[in-house]
Amino acid sequence: MDLGLKGKRAIVTGGTRGIGRAIVDVLIDEGCDIAFCARNQDEVFETHEALSNSNTKIISGVVDVAQSSPFRNWIVESAEELGGLDILIANASALGVGADEEAWRTSLEVDILGTVRAV
Description:
By secondary structure, this protein is an alpha/beta fold.
């Protein structure tokens, strides 16, 4: 598939598994330079290693989108290292962790405010 993305620069949050990893894989296959992040250090390392044979630039980071300053800094630094930013996919999500009030707070912090911080 050719989506016309060759040479574009992308950031994907929550990019180590599930839909986020699939997005990362498609963007790399399309020829995008990419930065991705997730909270789990081992998963970030394993994903980076698995992608290292691609012909595109790969940047990875262990970052929690709920932590405002570190996350915002990572976004800025990654965009600078990529040489700009064309695509931002805020994929990190905490939905489905429970139905109590604390679970809703976590979901709002990650899903809504994490996206706002990225943008």
